[in-house]
Amino acid sequence: MVGLGSALANLRNALGRPEAHVEVVDGETVPVGMLLGTLGALLLDAGSSVTDVRSALEKARDAAGVGPTLAVGVLPALVMVSETATGAATIVNAEGVELSARQSARANRLVLGLESGSIALAEIPARVRAIRAGTVPPPALPWIVGNALTSAGLAVVFRCPWWAVLPALAVGALVGVIGLVLRRFREAVAIIPFLAAFLSTTVVGLVAAGTGFDHVPLFAVCAPVAVFVPGALITNALLELTAADIVTGSSRLVQGLITLGFMAAGIAAGSAITGLRIDPTSAALVGEVAGVGTDRGGWEAVPSYWVSWVAVVGLAVGLGLVFRSGWRLTLVSVAVMVTAYAVVSTATPAWGSVVATGTAAALLFVATRVVERVVPVIPATVSFFPAFLLLVPGTVGLVAVATFDAQALGTPLATFVSLCIGTKIGGLLPGLFARNAPHR
Question: How far, in Å, CA of 39 to CA of 92, rounded?
């Protein structure tokens, strides 16, 4: 008697439809589409763009010998893998749970292992479960301290006077407390950027009014809320749009602009209550303000230039605490951010801030790819992230929206485009060198 499985196989062959690709996992057959979808959902939760997720899944598919018989489609919250011969599709939804930097690094190492063939597709479920098992709410003290260090570090790097640096440190910690509390309520997540911007502006406005300081730079207000500025989100949206992921790129771009609008409303509300007037001319990029001083003294003096280098280290450490990087990845973040700061501050006087930002992005992305090949436990997408946050002009765009300054808006737009081009070139060069390298 012919078994049911053999009968189905014969029927598929008679109809000219090949049997679905499967792998044996824990003694059971699992469709390859489900395995790839599970991996893609993990990468989406790790913060990868849909373009990068699709590319990673296609490389893993090809390395396993499946080839183009499986088509991969990715949206912001789900992954679709379909059999090209039959049209049968497997859909896996992302869990929507934010992963830490260490988890993202492990996810990227999993992708690298699949691409090299050292990890089999059948290992995906167990490895994904192990990575997700480390998902825990951010610890209170590191989260608060990380926000405070990030705020103070940005205030110093962008040459705020001492009177603004100290409130930035305090407000950064307070914003961290608010974010930690409100993150527990799903309905409050959308309003956190508004509340954080409103709180930051109000505190800075009250300090400025009480002390009589009339020069209020942009980053005195924006530094404490920089973690919530969607600069990286908007840049990823532009990267997706350039990769023809129109639907996803457009939705992310709209989401980023809405978040900027909420933050601009918070700044406007805080300014109206306190009478604060922000100097729109202080909306400058990293390379433009490096080494800038002031003729004012006392609390209105800016920190010495050497303090900015210390602040870059503090900024990297703060981001490591916020994103739960662990000490190894934090050390890598320090090295990457210091290098990014050195490249941008050196190149800006010669080439201008827009070109310098794109150049720094390209050079650093190539460097992180080289490090990835030498030390696979440091994936390029994770090690490049700190420099990415330093280079994106999200806060400059925020002040342009808040002050309705059309001229100021042109700078972040041009820099966003330069950053996208630099990242694309940086991602392309290692592949070209590898493809043109002589075979031995």
Answer: 9
Q: Cα(first)–Cα(last) distance of the chain, in Å?
A: 54
Compute CA distances 192 → 47, 155, 390, whole Å: 19, 21, 22
Distance of CA 347 to the CA centre of its chain: 24
Q: What's the predicted TM-score (pTM) here?
A: 0.79
* DSSP class per residue in 102-138: HHHHHHHHHHHHHHHTSS-GGGHHHHHHHHHTT--PP
- Token pair listed for 237: 């949206």
Residue type, 264: A
Spatial separation of the C-alpha atoms in residues 395 and 390, rounded to whole Å: 11
Q: Which residues contact 302 (CB under 8 A, 6 or more apart)?
A: 159, 160, 161, 162, 292, 293, 294
Residue 335 buriedness (CB in 10 A; 0-12 / 13-18 / 19+): middle
Render each residue's pLDDT in the chain as its tens digit; 440 residues. Answer: 444 444 444 434 433 444 457 676 767 788 888 899 999 999 988 888 888 888 889 999 888 888 778 889 888 888 999 888 887 888 899 888 888 888 888 898 899 889 888 888 889 999 999 999 888 878 888 989 999 999 888 888 888 888 888 888 888 898 888 888 877 777 777 788 888 888 888 888 888 888 777 667 777 787 888 778 776 777 777 777 777 778 888 888 888 888 888 888 888 888 888 887 776 666 666 766 666 666 666 777 788 888 889 999 999 999 889 888 888 888 888 988 898 888 888 888 888 878 888 888 888 888 887 887 777 777 777 777 777 777 775 566 665 566 555 556 666 677 777 777 887 777 676 555 444 443 33
Q: At a CB cut-off of 8 Å and minimum separation 6, what does 11 contact?
A: none
Residue-wise DSSP of 354-418: HHHHHHHHHHHHHHHHHHHHH-TTS-HHHHSHHHHHHH--HHHHHHHHHHT-HHHHHHHHHHHHH
Q: How far apart are CA 55 and CA 40, in angstroms?
A: 10
Give yes or no for a contact between 367 and 430, defined as CB atoms under 8 angstroms apart.
no
Q: How is residue 234 written in tokens? A: 């908007």
Per-residue three-class SS string for 193-261: HHHHHHHHHHHHHHHHHHHCCCCCCHHHHHHHHHHHCCHHHHHHHHHHHHCCCHHHHHHHHHHHHHHHH
Boundaries of every domain in the chain: 18-132, 140-436
Task: For 401, list phi and psi in degrees, rounded to 5.
Answer: -70, -40
Whole-angstrom CA distances from 365 to 278, 286, 343 are 35, 18, 13
